Amino acid sequence: MAISSALSFLSDRKRPIVVAVILFIVLSSLFLLPNPTPSALPFFSSPSSHLSSSETSIPVSSNASTPEPPTSAASNGVSSSSSAAGSVPVSADASPPVTGTAVASDGVGDSTTDPPRPDATADPGDAEADVPQPDHGTSPAAAEESGSAGNNETAAGVSAERDAEGQGGGAAVEEPVELPSWELCEVGKGVVAADYIPCLDNVKAIKGLKSLRHMEHRERHCPEPRPRCLVPLPERYRRPVPWPRSRDMIWYNNVPHPKLVEYKKDQNWIRKSDNYFVFPGGGTQFKNGVTAYIRFIEQILPNIQWGIHTRTVLDVGCGVASFGGYLLDRNVITMSFAPKDEHEAQIQFALERGIPAFLAVIGTQKLPFPDNSFDVIHCARCRVHWYADGGKPLLELNRVLRPGGYYIWSATPVYRKEQRDKDDWNAMIALTKSICWRTVVRSRDINKIGVVIYQKPTSNSCYLMRKNNEPPLCSESDGSRSPWYTPLDSCLFPAVSSSGGGNSWPISWPERLNMKHSTTSKNTSIQFSQEKIDSEANNWKDLVSEVYLNEFAVNWSSVRNVMDMNAGFGGFASSLIQQPLWVMNVVPVDQPDTLPIIFDRGLIGVYHDWCESFNTYPRTYDLLHMSYLLGSLTKRCHITEVAAEIDRILRPGRWFVLQDTIEVIRKMDPVLRSLHYKTTIIKRQFLVATKGFWRPDSTGPQS
């Protein structure tokens, strides 16, 4: 009896202890699992209602942003550390090994604001604090130490936080992804390594050309094998001057090409002032400045109605793109283009200023734009012989000019009386008459600079009434209308196609952005319904407002330009229309041809094949966006080649956003981390990657 009572008492005293142990075991099983998931811990779910609440964000690095030093010789490859290439599983628990030179600014990725400048000593309330200041440099040793420390922190962050998504720990081992062995690009003689554009700087192919008469050396000649290398940074490169100040001034060290200053010193294009290039807004034909020139055009042709009737402009031989830069004030988006190095780095200057621009030449091949796309085409002393080779250059302008659109030509044959100018003018009269362009106005401004404006017809009646069928009308049997690597037409593209399309002018801007469409893709015969176009627009509107602008670690106030690498109908660009930025819409050549719709909406873009390099200088875009393209793209070219081109185009400290399946994201993520990008996976659908200032050593390949 006594023993029984004692045991009963002991049992009563142990009961709370047993209960506590059981509770401890249960709680431990919940919170100490190797792979806790959002479904197990529902309070970890994203607040976004647009996507599944069971998805979450997985930031790769938790290290704070650090000040950005200017790059030095070290960041262009002076350090001697090296590492062998290898293979790692996608679900690796550590970031790639730190090699080469990683400066402190490699850790900018997770902050939603730009890190402070190394010279930012002014009081935040001082108006002068926002004015760019010359940088003062950072010792290579300090930069190396800071960069290494930042990447060590990243390794810990990857291990802990990727386990939360189930990529590490007890997750199934996926097939390894071979990481590249990164090295700096080797360029040909006469090519500036920091300005390397693979398809325009193929010295070997250019030397083998049989003729240069038609600017063949300025056309695309892509190298084989495709590059898997990185372009170095200019010494003392720093983040660009922000818009809108960048329209008038840029850092000298970012585009260190002074020849144009001397060459155009009397034409007010560009000046050097201390650490800056300054752009006064002048030009060869803009004696009183580009603003006065734009007003003059509107005075002699009121129907042009900048920003209402006229929305898209093509500026041929654009110089430093001041014409397009100032038209932005009028709600006009201008595609400014010129060949590489006709005037040293003119397109690079334009893009550094934050103005839309593109490298191209009217040589032997068509421009990468659809038929009937631009409202206005402009040429101010663009040095193109329009009547050469049977008039093919002007026939190409006729192809891309919208029926009823205007061609504005400001050149010496319009107003000078020398015999050569007279001959050129008479040749132009004959050619424009043969293609039924009507001379709307010919006038001179107060500086005696002459301008003539032609208009393309809106019907085919004039073509059919010509006495001589020269040039002949193009027929549908002439082959594909795709302009990609296609020779220039020697025939005249009609104003109205046999199907009846081509002669309608879009409604006024900004209503034009949401105008109704119904058209057929030229290269796939796919009918694009209005319902499909509207659905894409609404989807992007929701995604951008709910996710892109609110959940991405992107400082949108510092984004001046965006490249949408798979633009569809332009829905992503239209969703950003209220932001102070512009979007280059790229339609891949192996995708349905939606580019005509993009232009009809009052946006701009080009065709391109992303297995080749894009016609732009390095470090010219703030954000690259790719939506559901990478999977099909990597069936034709290697993922490393795609990553190398993304890295070439993207500015340091800026962002690449990939929307795709989680399987594709897991393939791209380690490749970008091998480039020392800071990556974040959001909702198992988006990869947001921030490029740093890291470059590999020039002494050997780096993984």
Automatic annotation (TrEMBL):
It is found in: Endomembrane system; Membrane. Residues 45-172 are annotated as: Disordered. Residues 45-59, 72-98, 141-153 have a biased composition (Low complexity). The keyword Membrane applies. It is a single-pass membrane protein; Single-pass type II membrane protein. Gene3D superfamilies: Vaccinia Virus protein VP39 (3.40.50.150). This is Methyltransferase. Keywords: Glycoprotein, Membrane, Methyltransferase, Signal-anchor, Transferase, Transmembrane, Transmembrane helix. The lineage of its organism: Eukaryota, Viridiplantae, Streptophyta, Embryophyta, Tracheophyta. Its EC number is 2.1.1.-. It comes from the Eukaryota. One of its GO terms (molecular function) is methyltransferase activity. PANTHER family: METHYLTRANSFERASE, SAM-DEPENDENT METHYLTRANSFERASE.
